[in-house]
Amino acid sequence: MNKILANNKNTFLIFLVLSFLFYGNSVKNGFSLDDSYVTITNYPVKGKEYKPNNLLISKGVASIPKIWQSHYGYGQGTAYDYRPLVLTMFALEYAVFGQAPHINHFINIVLYAALILCLFLFLKKCLYAYSYKESFSFVCALLFLAHPIHTEVVNNIKCRDELLALLLMLLSAINIFNYFEDRKIWHIVFATLYLFMAFYCKLTAAIFIVLIPMSLFFFSKINLKQTLFLFGGLLVCFLLYQISKSIFIAEKEVRFFYHFENPLYTETISFYTKILFALKTFGMYVNLLFFPYPLRFYYGTPLVTTNLNLIDFKIITALIFLGVSFYYYFRTKNKIALFGLLFFLISIAPLTNFISPVAGIIGERLCFTASIGFVVFITSILFSLYKTIPDKITGNLFSQKPLLYLSVVLIIFLFLDWKRNAAWQSEFSLYEHDGQYAAKSAGGNNLLGNKYYEMLSNENKANSRDVIINKSLACYTIAYEVDSSLFSALNNAGVIYYSYLNQTDKALTCFKRAIRNNPRKYPQAYENVGNCYKRKGDFIQAFKNYRIATFQNPNQAQSYAELIKLLIESKRFASALPLIKEADAHFPKNYFFTTQYANYFLLSGNNTKGIEKLEEAFVISPNKKLAEYIFNKCSEFNITQKAEYYKGQYALLPQ
Question: Does this model's pTM top 0.70?
Fold first, then answer.
C-alpha cells in the first residue's frame, strides 16, 4: 500500500483535494442514520446517569476481543451480520478521539480518496494494453468520485463498512493483476490478506469472487482454465471466511424482516411478477445513476409494490437501458463498454430482489460497487466519440468535446453533493429534508415521526408542543395507513394519544391494532393496553395485559410494578407476594421492588420484616424521603435506636 501511494502520490493528492472539494462540508456534520451501530451517538445529559448506547465501542481497545466474538447489529431481539474489522476501527477511533463525529467524517473522506486512487489503479491494470489507459481511468475515477449517489456512503459514518470493503477488494484485485504480471508469490499473500479483511468489513465484497476473474479474463493473458482456477481459489477463501466466522462467533443470528421494508418478505407472488419487481428495482437504480435527484435515505414500500405491469416507467427504463446497451455493443464491439456493462449487471443483480428480497427494496449505498461498471460503460461511450483519444491527464482534458460536456455534469454534481451533504447533518435534518420526497414512504414517515416524538420529551423553544404532536401524529398516521404492518407507528401514535392528548380510547385502539399487526411478541404494547384499562378503571383487563407483558418479556419492569401496585392497592396481599418475589428475582437490588416488598410486609402486619426491607432499599438508594419514612415507622413501633439513626441520616442527606 505504501509503495502504491508513493508511486502515485500526486494522483492521490489530486483525488484527496477533489474528495474534500465535493464532500468537505460533511466534516461539520454530526451523527446520523444508523451511526449508533458503529459508535456512541448519545451524549451525556446533565443530572442523569450516562450510559453509552454502544457498549462494545465504549470500552475502546479493551472491547476488540469481544467485537470479534459478536454480531454487528443488535436491537429489538435481533442479532445479525458480522463486520468485526469495521467495529475494531471505530473502537480504536473512540479510544483515541472519544465521541468525535467530525473526526469520523474526516476519516471517511480520506478513505474515499484512497478508494478513488485504488479504482484508478485497478482500471489502469485492466487497460494496460490501451494507450489511453491513464486518461480513461482518471475520467472514470473522477466521475465515480463526484457522483451524488455516493453521498450516502461518504456522509453516513455507518457506511464505513462499504468504503473499507470496496477499498480492500480493489487492493486485492490490483495485487492479483500484479501476480499475473510478475508471478511473485507475495502479491498473492497480500491479495489474500486484503480479501479476508474485506469479508470482515461487509459481505457485499463477495461479489468480487466473480468480478476479479472476469476482469482478468477480459484484459489479461490468462486463459479460461486459469480464470476458473482463480475463481475456485477465491471461493475457497470465502468458505474459509465462513468457517472462521462460525468459530469466532457462537451466538445465533436472528433477523426479522417486515412488509414495510419489502413486500416480498410477506407476500407470495408469481414468477412473472417477481421478474417485473426485479426489473422495476433495476430501473430505479438506472434512473438514479443517470439522474441522481431526488435522493432519499430510505425507499421501501410503497415506492415499489407487487401490483405491477409492463406499463411502468421504471420497468420501461430498465428494458430500454438493457436493449440500447447491448445494441450499442453489438454495433460497435466496444470491449471496454461490454466489460463495464457486465461489471454493472453482475454487481447489481443480487440487489434487484430477484434472488432474495432486499431490506428497503433499494439503497443508494448498495449500488456502490455496481456504479464502477456504470461509469466505465458511460466513459467508454464518451471516449469512442474521439477521433484521437487523449492518452495523458492534461489540463485541457476536459476543455474539448465530448469531455467538455462532462465538465458541466461535474459542476452540477458538485452542487448536488454540497446540498446532499448538508441534508446529512443529523438524523432529524435528513429525515425532515427527505420527507418532502417520500410523502408515501411508510418507513421514512415512521422514522421522522420518531424524531418528532423524541422532541416531545425534550425542551424545545422553536416549536410549540402542539405543533410537534401534530407533526408526529401526521407522520405516524401516514406510516400505518400506507402499510399497516408498521406496528411501531401504531404503538407510538397510541402513546401520544395516551400521554399527551389524554384520549384513552384512541390510544387503546392504536395499541390493539399494533398487537394484531405484529406477528411476534409485543410486550410494550400489552403494557400500554394495561395502562389504558387502568385509567378507565377496568382493573381486571389492566391486570391481564400487564401479566401478558411480563410473560412475553420477564424484563418488563414497569409491567411488574403496575401489577404489584394493583394487587397491593386492592389489599390482595397474598397474591402480591409471588409477583414481588418474581420481580425481585428478575431485578435484584432494585429500589422500587424492594420498597414494594417492604409495603407488603408492613400492610400484612409484619413490621419487623417491613422495616428490614425499607433499610435494604435505603442502602440501594439513600434519600431524604425514605430516611424520614423509616424514622416515622421506627418511632411508631418504638424502635428507638434505629429511629435516631435515620433521623440523623435525614439531617445529613442533601435536598
Answer: yes
